């Protein structure tokens, strides 16, 4: 491990100690520190041998953002063992559970929430800084199996389950479940190949 990686890991542990973040052994942070927003009862669990890659200079991909973890007041994000997260954004108001040996490319967004209410008067109230009933904002758990690969710029929305070994092609918009051992692509995501 390079000195810069050791210093980033130490800075990570000091800076984010106040949040409810648990990480396993051999966490590796490349480039910049990830961004965490974890209010109230939000929780984040990061498994063993996970790489959080926000390295804009030395990456083999066109990283355009830092790795981000954002929870609502009761959101929960669990990242399995041996995962590689490259400039990915996870947003959980309910729960996101990622399996083991998963790879996420840069600029991908995984969100289990709609963020905003559907009723027009509630959206206007929110825009005006008024409190709104967040229990009316739709949210639903996202779960992935093991050994999935999520391509650059993918968006995965609430309620989706992704099966083992599947690949989500770059730029894909996922709103429905993806079975195991397939490649999906497009908007909306469609199976293009069995693997």
Question: Could you give a short account of the major beta sheet?
Answer: 8 strands, mixed
Which architecture per CATH? 3 Solenoid
The arrangement of helices and strands along the chain is HEEEEEEEEEEEEHEEEEEEEE
**CATH fold title:** UDP N-Acetylglucosamine Acyltransferase, domain 1
- Please work out how many helical segments DSSP would assign: 2
Number of domains: 1
Spatial strand order of the main sheet: 2-5-8-11-14-17-19-20
- What gap, in angstroms, lies between the N and C termini? 35 Å
Which shape, going by the Cα principal axes? globular
Mean pLDDT comes to 90
Count of DSSP E strands?
20
Helix vs. strand class: mainly beta
In short:
With 195 residues, this protein is mainly β.
Tell me what you see in this structure.
There is one protein chain. With 195 residues, this protein is mainly beta. It has one domain: UDP N-Acetylglucosamine Acyltransferase, domain 1 (3 Solenoid), CATH 2.160.10.10. Helix content is 11%, strand content 33%. The protein contains two helices and 20 strands. Strands 2-5-8-11-14-17-19-20 form an eight-stranded mixed β-sheet. Strands 1-4-7-10-13-16 form a six-stranded parallel β-sheet, with no helix packed on it. A six-stranded parallel β-sheet has the order 3-6-9-12-15-18, with no helix packed on it. The longest helix has 13 residues.
């Amino acid at each position: 491990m390079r000195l810069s990686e050791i210093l980033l890991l130490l800075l990570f542990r000091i800076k984010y100690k106040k949040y409810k973040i648990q990480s396993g052994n051999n966490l590796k942070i490349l480039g910049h520190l990830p961004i965490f927003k974890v209010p109230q009862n939000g929780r984040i669990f990061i498994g063993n041998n996970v790489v959080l890659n926000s390295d804009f200079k030395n990456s083999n991909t066109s990283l355009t953002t830092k790795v981000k973890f954002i929870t609502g007041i009761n959101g929960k994000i669990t990242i399995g063992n041996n995962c590689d997260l490259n400039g990915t954004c996870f947003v959980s108001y309910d729960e996101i559970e990622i399996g083991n040996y998963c790879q996420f490319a840069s600029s991908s967004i995984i969100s289990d929430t709609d963020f905003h209410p559907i009723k027009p008067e509630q959206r206007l109230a929110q825009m005006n800084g008024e409190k709104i009933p967040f229990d009316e904002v739709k949210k639903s758990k996202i779960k992935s199996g093991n050994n999935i690969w999520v391509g650059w710029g993918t968006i995965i929305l609430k309620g989706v389950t992704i099966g083992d070994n599947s690949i989500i092609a770059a730029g894909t918009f996922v709103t429905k479940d993806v079975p195991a051992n397939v490649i999906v692509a497009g908007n909306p995501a469609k199976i293009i190949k069995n693997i």
